[in-house]
Design a protein that fits this description.
There is one protein chain. The chain is α/β, with parallel strands linked by helices. The chain has a single domain (about 1-189), classed as Zn-dependent exopeptidases (Aminopeptidase, 3-Layer(aba) Sandwich), CATH 3.40.630.40. Helix content is about 40%, strand content about 20%. The protein has helices at about 30-45, 65-75, 105-125, 140, 160-165, 170-189; strands spanning about 1-5, 20, 25, 50, 80-85, 95-100, 130-135, 150-155. The strands form 2 sheets. The chain has a 6-stranded mixed sheet with strand order 4-1-5-8-6-7, covered by helices on one side. It has a two-stranded antiparallel sheet with strand order 2-3. A hairpin with a 4-residue loop joins strand 2 and strand 3 (about 25). Helix 1 crosses helix 6 (about 170-189) and helix 3 runs antiparallel to helix 6. The longest helix is centred in the middle third of the chain and has 20 residues, at about 105-125. It starts with a strand and ends with a helix. One of its GO terms (cellular component) is outer membrane-bounded periplasmic space. One of its GO terms (molecular function) is N-acetylmuramoyl-L-alanine amidase activity. Keywords: Hydrolase.
Length: about 190
């Protein structure tokens, strides 16, 4: 299985760091990359081929390597974009975004989301499950030719979730990797 991992936002935060937690001075681009690198390690140990690309160029709109074209050209079996959500500092939880609720992306999303929520609720019993949501206009879900999901791991602007992101990256990454391998085992079965 070939898995393309896309940690959200621009490398080194330039020009787009994504969401920021000012209190803890953490940026989405850094959290997503750290978690993505850990997911990569887990998947390589599981025998997967993995390519990881963090770029501000999703679909040819910016300089740098084009994420969607790279994933499609590499002929990945699965595409996973990793992000941290933000809203108004009071909202918490994880959600997984998919193109629609009928395709293979949805099946992949269900597997990843189930593992992520189980892990996060084991760590913090109050961690909210925000569910699986459709976002058909997101380029990484719309234009990739393989099953694709975008995982919003937690709300970086919420201090409770930010602490989870800072202190439990191994667990978050392992849950995402387990969800990917769960999906692949179902697909192969």
């Amino acid at each position: 299985m070939k898995v393309f991992i896309n940690p959200g936002h621009a490398p080194n935060g330039n020009p787009d760091p994504g969401a920021i937690n000012e209190f803890f001075r953490i940026r989405e681009c850094d959290m997503a990359l750290s978690i993505g690198e850990l997911v990569k390690r887990y998947l390589i140990k599981a025998g997967c081929g993995v390519k990881l690309l963090q770029s501000n160029n999703l679909y040819g709109e910016s300089a740098g390597e084009n994420i969607i074209q790279s994933a499609n050209d590499w002929e990945a079996d699965i595409f996973v974009s990793i992000h941290c959500n933000a809203f108004d500092k009071t909202v918490r939880g994880a959600e997984t975004l998919v193109y629609d609720l009928i395709g293979e992306g949805y099946s992949l999303g269900r597997c990843i989301h189930a593992q992520l929520i189980e892990e996060m609720q084991d760590i913090d019993g109050t961690f909210p499950d925000r569910g699986i949501r459709t976002r058909s206009l997101l380029a990484v879900l719309r234009s990739t030719i393989m099953p694709a999901v975008l995982v919003e791991t937690a709300f970086i602007d919420n201090d409770i979730d930010a602490l989870l992101l800072m202190n439990h990256q191994q667990e978050i990454a392992a849950a995402i990797a387990r969800g990917i391998t769960d999906y692949w085992q179902q697909f192969q079965g």
